[in-house]
What does this fold into?
Amino acid sequence: MHQEHAPLGHTPAERMGPVAIPNRLPVFPLPNIVFFPKMYLPLYIFESRYRSMIADASNGSRHIAMALLKEGWETDYYGNPAIFPTLCIGRIMSVQPLPDGRSNILLQGLDRCEIQEEHFEKPYREATIHLKPRIEKERLPADVRRALVEMLGRYLQSREDSTTWQGFFRDEVGDEVLVNTLSTYLECTPLEKQFLLEADGLRQRAGRLNDLIQFMLFDPHRTKDWE
It folds into this structure.
């Protein structure tokens, strides 16, 4: 299984210029990680098929799409088990080669996309994708952000790591960074995070996140079926 791993010696994002995103991308499916735009994701690559994927992507556009595996993936992990069709595109910011072809990589989250068609000609899965529309510098209404921050504050009162989150209460933290950071790091299940990723815009994601934090606050042992 692929695991998160701290990257070393990565190239700062500001040194890399913008690159057009192709409409056919390698797909990296995992059972426990949902990736969001504007977030960073370190990964340890060791399976041969994904070594090939990273080598090909590094020599090409440097983009891959991160996908969440659907329930039941265990019986066909080394095949092509079903994945959720809404993905997040990541740009490879750095590759740290390790012995035997393994590597540590660092991804920068760019945009969400939807799978139109899957392709299986290579050792790894590829997909023809359609970019999800996004509003540049999308902002939350003040009351929506305030409600989210207040709900988060109530939730954090019972946690020992509450001071770690204090910086996210500052007004200068952008709305998208705030919402996507919470979506990434709060103790939600992968299915709940996928539900957040699939939200139609930042305002809907913030509303879903607010509802989810409420469930976490009042029912820590909850089970929620998002249909």
Notes: The first helix runs from residue 48 to 58. The first strand starts at residue 24 and ends at 30. The chain is about 25% helix and 25% strand. The radius of gyration is 18 Å.
